[in-house]
Amino acid sequence: MKLKYLAIGIVTAGSVSATALPLSGNWTRDPVPPALAEAALWTPESLSVPAPVLAPTLARSDTAPMVSSPALPSVVVVAPSLPKIEPSLRTWSREIAAGETLDGLLVEAGLAAQVRAEVALALAAEFDLLRLRPGHSLSVVSTHDGSPRRVVLEVDDGVRIEAVFDEQMATHVVAPDPKIVTLAAEAHIESSVFAALDAGGIPARFAVDLAQMLGGFVDFRRDLAGGETLRLMWREARIGNDIVGHPDLTFAALEIGDTLFEIIWPEDGTGLATIYRDGAVVRVFAPPVEGARPSSVFGRRTHPVYGDTRMHTGVDFSVARGTPVYATAPGRVSFIGSRRGYGRAVEIAHGSETTTLYAHLSAVPDGLSRGDRVAAGDLIGRVGATGTATGPNLHYEVRVNGRPTDPLSDDRLAEAAEQIAASDAALTRLEDARARLDEQLARVIARNTIESL
Length: 453
Prior knowledge:
Blueprint: H1 2-28, H2 34-40, E1 89-95, H3 102-108, H4 113-124, E2 137-143, E3 148-154, E4 160-164, E5 170-174, E6 179-189, H5 193-199, H6 206-214, E7 228-239, E8 242-256, E9 259-264, E10 273-277, E11 280-285, E12 294-296, E13 299-302, E14 309-312, E15 315-317, E16 324-326, E17 331-339, E18 343-350, E19 354-363, E20 373-374, E21 379-383, E22 394-400, E23 403-405, H7 416-421, H8 425-452
Antiparallel strand pairs: 1-2, 2-3, 3-4, 4-5, 6-7, 7-8, 8-9, 9-10, 10-11, 12-15, 13-14, 15-22, 16-21, 17-18, 17-20, 18-19, 19-21, 19-22, 22-23
């Protein structure tokens, strides 16, 4: 049965093939369209892919031909960059001794002449090298061939001037932030205020502050009989255990007989001190430079330049060069120019009797001229050292009818005292100052008691 079906399938397939052949013959005899004929002539362009290279065939025909691998692209090996090796450094440092110069110290540090000049210019950009003195110190960090990397000059009050020599040289000042400490003490006067302060471990310079404030009320050589009590409160700026700058009085109380004199110095840097007698305001002193204390008061003294004893006709304020100088009272500029001994000076007339003089100035404001009116607090110059002066300072002088008078005892320029006395703020300030003084003294007593146990 299976053979029967197989025979039928073969016959059928043969008949289909026979039918297809005549049809195929008829198609080839038909005309071919031109577009089709043109397309039939197209042949592909040769490919750009290189044929594999065949190795020569071996004698034996049954061995497969060897095909070589295509060449691989070459690889460039980059060596890793080596770390930059910094040259070894050496540090030289020393404290400046008397008579030494910056250039001499830099020679000792091993720097060449041209390098020393560059270091001096860098430090001079932030510090006056003429102010170098014993106690300052210099540190130089350099390579072994003498190229500086860092130079540090340590001066007063913990201030450092640093010059860094890198791709670009840079100089800057580093000033530490001091801690403000409030102190108080009580002293008993036996012979003089100076001796009492020295014996009590209190800064002796406060004797000058007291003399210039109470000069118009107290004669310290005649009125002090011995046994007077002096109580003081002051502030010190400290960096660690070192005192920075000068201490500043904030309150003083002096009992002379039945009279109590008290002085309050403000803590805002204005320098406007108020003097009380038995609790009432008697004077307000406004100095011509803010925050400065007199370095030399009115009266006979040994001249700092000539060495002889002569009359000092004003008050000196020793402050930095360029410090602003202000008019202490309203008036009209009566003189601008140079005077023998005074240097560059400005004189202001306050009415027909009183004049004030501001001497040793380094400069006066542009446009200020004789005849101009000024108000109290107007800028009239800057501190300098012109004329006969040992250093930057302001000589402030008051003349009445042409004769010099003590600027700190004359009341013609102290009109502000009347305004302050009329207000309750003056009494409030006095009460607060008394309370703080008592609190500080109580701490001193408690500390001394503990230490003695």
